[in-house]
Amino acid sequence: MVGGSQLENANPLIYRRSGERPVTAQEEDGEVADRIDGREVFDLIRSINDPEHPLSLEELNVVEEVRVKADDDESTVCVAFTPTIPHCSMATLIGLSIKVKLLRSLPERFKVDVHITPGTHASEHAVNKQLADKERVAAALENSHLLEVVNQCLSARS
Fold first, then answer.
1. Over the chain, what is the mean pLDDT?
2. What is the reported pTM?
3. In this structure, are residues 116 and 127 in contact, taking their beta carbons and an 8 Å threshold?
4. How many independent structural domains does the chain possess?
């Protein structure tokens, strides 16, 4: 239960986690500039905790590597996420958690776009509009309760 209410998706499908990416010799070389790619971005967000379940966004198939794009030359990152149900009330919180994780983890030069996978949520347009609005995101993060919930989603599970 979240906030004393019933779970929206009490029995979500659980997916197998993909394996860790092998580190190449070039990536270990401190003399070579490390380019940010989609897999690196996926590795940053895959372990974010779902706000309703003791599972990661990857385990719930909310985030998938194929829906993460990064262009190091253009300094852009684009992540499409898929809520587990079409009326998920946690969609904005999930998107906010992904966005905050990337803003905290990536160099400041990156423009981060986080949105719902088209056709997978009843209110995708409204949620996407909120997530794209810098002022609304900043205001949300000034709310201490909401920031605490986001930080719980981003904290490592023990």
1. 88
2. 0.82
3. yes
4. 1
